[in-house]
Amino acid sequence: MSKKILILPIIMVLIAAFLGGYFLLFKQTPLPAIQTTSPNILYLTNPITSFSGKIEAVSGNIITVNREINLPQPNQGLLNKATSKKITYKILIGKNTVISKITSKVPYLFKSPVATASNSVNKQLTNKDLQIGQTIYAISNTDLRTLTGDQLEASVIDISPNEFSINGKINAIKGNELIIRGSASTLLSEIGIVPNAMPQEKNYTITIDQNTEISNSIASNNPAIPSKPEKYLLSDLKKDQLVTIYAEGDMNTDQKFISLRVIPFLPNLPTATPQATQSSTQKPK
Description:
Layout: H1 2-27, E1 50-59, E2 62-70, E3 84-101, E4 135-140, E5 151-160, E6 163-174, E7 177-186, E8 201-207, E9 213-218, E10 228-231, E11 242-248, E12 256-264, H2 274-281
């Protein structure tokens, strides 16, 4: 009888140990996974420490910037259902953040400043110069692929003029307005902002004012003579002429702009007469 009494507790201990082990192995709640990559990893496929987009909100030393990023269309896979995504970041302006404004990228021939690498950035600005609707290019020390939240501190913020070019044909001239049929392309790609979509043809109304430069470089028939910059008047522009227009504004929503520069092309482009060319190259006696 005493042996049975001793065996019973041993059996109960063994059963308890078995049940405990089973619970630990199969019933234990798994620990939450530690996220080490950004939820936007599919859209940030390169080592990236910069972000560009439009400011949608300004709150003290934090600006909210968003951008629609497109994915290449794959032949197969889950990405067929998601070819673009709107990515938003809250960018913190720290005490060491440098804020600058990029000068015009319009390639003027006569007006200054001409956009070159040596004068591409103006004097340092403050966060008071950041406004809703501006396009900015922010550089950070954080790799966005491993950023698990939506906030990062910027080391540099460049405010970009919303400049673009229109390549097209003059359909009509009404006073100082040109009716252009063409497609627009942003100039922001020169500072690292890549357009998200291919340009589409639209009708644009372009105003020529006193600040518009109408110019082109005329190539000589002699390869040894460099191209000569020439200025033109509004009256030199003709219907059906091919032109490149430079302007500033929102090319995605607006279709009326004031031109910063017009580049007219042949065959309607006026050229210097042989006599004028000869006299201009004669040496004074």
